[in-house]
Specification:
It comes from Cellvibrio fibrivorans. This protein has 105 residues and is mainly alpha-helical. It has 4 helices and 2 strands.
C-alpha cells in the first residue's frame, strides 16, 4: 500500500513539475491591444432655432431648462451672444462652460 501511495505521489509530483517546466518553455505572446478612443462628437446647436429636444442634448440641460431657453428667446428675441444664456433662469457659468463649444447663434 505504501508503495502505491509513494508511486502515486511521484507521478503527481512529476506531472506537476513537468507542467511548470512546459509553461516556462512556452513563450508568452503579447496579444495586440485594440486602442479605443472615446470620441464624443456633438453637433453644434443653434440656440436661436433649436427646439426642446435639441436643447436637451446640451450637458446639464433638461426639459425645464430647454423650455426656459425657448421662453427667454420668445420674450427677448434671438440671442446675440452665447453669454446671454446666463440670463436664462437655471443656466449658470458651469452649464455655459460645459457647452460653449457646442453652442451656435
Amino acid at each position: 500500500m505504501k508503495f502505491i501511495l509513494s508511486l502515486a505521489s511521484i507521478v503527481i509530483l512529476s506531472f506537476g513539475t513537468s507542467s511548470l517546466a512546459f509553461a516556462a518553455e512556452v513563450p508568452a505572446t503579447k496579444a495586440p491591444v485594440a486602442k479605443v478612443e472615446a470620441v464624443t462628437t456633438q453637433e453644434a446647436i443653434n440656440i436661436n432655432t433649436a427646439d426642446v429636444q435639441e436643447l436637451t442634448k446640451l450637458k446639464g440641460v433638461g426639459v425645464k431648462k430647454a423650455e426656459a431657453i425657448i421662453a427667454w428667446r420668445e420674450e427677448n428675441g434671438n440671442f446675440k451672444t452665447v453669454d446671454q444664456l446666463l440670463e436664462v433662469k437655471g443656466i449658470g457659468e458651469v452649464t455655459l462652460a460645459q457647452n460653449r463649444e457646442n453652442i451656435r447663434i
